[in-house]
TrEMBL record:
Signal peptide: none annotated. One of its GO terms (molecular function) is oxidoreductase activity. This is NAD(P)-dependent dehydrogenase, short-chain alcohol dehydrogenase family. The lineage of its organism: Bacteria, Bacillati, Actinomycetota, Actinomycetes, Pseudonocardiales. Coiled coil: none annotated.
Length: 250
């Protein structure tokens, strides 16, 4: 198995993307620690993993609280001996509106929250990874300046900001053997609400792919597990494109 005897921490582990990564990590042998703010959602993912024969534990953690995050990671390391993979799929509240229509506080607050939580969780894991001289920090979203489009509001701006943060972590942590990789997505339509208003965006993502299909949650998990494993050890300081060709950023 790709991640046998590895420890993975997932912030936002009760959500669809975090859950997909957790499923894949556990299926490849990782011991998965799911962190988030909604116990029922975390436990639902954990129960699914355990039913499939995997190992999963949950913890209610506010990922904007540095002390809480540090305490959680320290507890994970004390229990397992290491933190090998850390991924945070928490984003700020998305405003899919024209920029002129978004209140300044709402725009800036969402981007600030995304950056804050990413900084806190990455820093907490990096403390241990630097000591280990190993580890993988995964990010989700990515930056694709070639494909800017109207109506994205603060969403792509937030992804771009987090990607800039990831690049800075990459140069600072690479000398310590820590890899940093972003999964570049053009949108995971499995996660879209099943309402008529989303049919246009859903079809637009499919049409934007040369293969005329979109990445699934299963695809996200499979690529994340590969990148986090030793099979992906040559991949770092970059984005891995999981958009089925819809995004061109590298």
């Amino acid at each position: 198995m790709l991640l046998e005897n590895k420890t993975a921490v997932i912030y936002g582990g009760g959500g669809s993307i975090g859950g997909a990564m957790a499923d894949a990590f556990a299926a490849e042998g990782a011991r998965v620690f799911l962190a988030g703010r909604t116990p029922a959602k975390l436990e639902a993912v954990a129960e699914r993993i355990r039913a499939a024969g995997g190992q999963a534990e949950t913890a209610v953690v506010d990922a904007t609280d540095a002390a809480a995050v540090n305490d959680h990671v320290d507890a994970v390391v004390e229990k397992t001996g290491s933190v090998d993979v850390s991924v945070n799929v928490i984003t700020g509240e998305g405003n899919f509106q024209p920029l002129a229509d978004i209140p300044v506080d709402a725009f800036a607050g969402a981007v600030a929250r995304a950056l804050t939580t990413q900084l806190i969780t990455t820093r907490a894991a990096a403390r241990h990874m630097v000591k280990q001289e190993s580890g993988v920090l995964l990010f989700f979203g990515g930056s694709d300046p070639a494909n800017a489009m109207a109506g994205m509001g603060n969403v792509q701006v937030g992804f771009d900001a987090v990607e800039a943060l990831r690049r800075q972590w990459a140069v600072e942590l690479a000398p310590h053997g820590v890899r940093t990789v972003t999964l570049l997505t053009g949108g995971i339509i499995d996660t879209f609400p099943d309402v008529p208003e989303m049919e246009g965006p859903r079809q637009g993502i499919i049409n934007g792919s040369p293969l005329k299909r979109a990445a699934t949650m299963s695809d996200v998990g499979a690529v994340a597990a590969f990148v986090a494993s030793e099979k992906g050890r040559s991949i770092t300081s970059t984005q891995v494109n999981i958009s089925v060709g819809a995004c061109y950023g590298g």
